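Students often ask what a 'structure token' actually looks like in practice. Rather than answer in the abstract, let us consider CBS domain-containing protein, a protein of 207 residues. Its sequence is given first.
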Amino acid sequence: MTTVSAVMTADPITVSPQTPFKDIAELLTGNGISAVGVVDKTGVLVGVVSEADLLPHLWDDPKPRRRDRRLARKATACTAKDLMTSPVVTIDADDSLAVAAAKFARTGVRRLFVLWNGKPAGVLSRRDLVRVFTRGDADLEREVCARLRQLSWGPDRVRVEVRAGIVTVVGRVERRSDIDPVTRSISELSGVVEVRNRLDYVWNDVA
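Now compare that with the structural description of the same chain:
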């Protein structure tokens, strides 16, 4: 199973709650990033300041609508403590990419801060997840074959073909009950778009 730690951007840039507005702006632009984490004295992530949190400083509306008042307060904020959004949507470093994708879909956020032992270890963007599907077919096929060999399914029993990330598995195995777990195992590999199961079996131990 490919985990978040394998595709995240490690060593995220963080600031303290007292970091000034201008310093944050310089960190974002100077490092080509869209957000920084805010950590307390113990290194615990307490908030995040994104580009969107800085933009209210450009507003000139003296009477913002009620739904905009939270952002209007940020228009006068001068430190990370008052600029940040909290709580932060996070994910654990050892979570699967499937868990990450579901969290992105559920929350609508652009990035997830990655935690290891409760401390920020990286940042995961939606693009990081999409990038796994750019993996070459030959590389993916080698990993699928290696996974099958671990299960004692060598090329004499099962043949693998990968095209555009779609894995087709053809062959004959002893027990029907072996097929679904192997299909799930292959689908968890980084870069797999779909698994097409063309496996037959000798003994139907499921019926």
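One point worth highlighting: The beta strands are 9-10, 14-15, 35-39, 45-50, 90-92, 111-116, 119-125, 158-163, 166-175, 194-203. Ask yourself how you might have guessed this from the sequence alone, and why that guess would often be unreliable.
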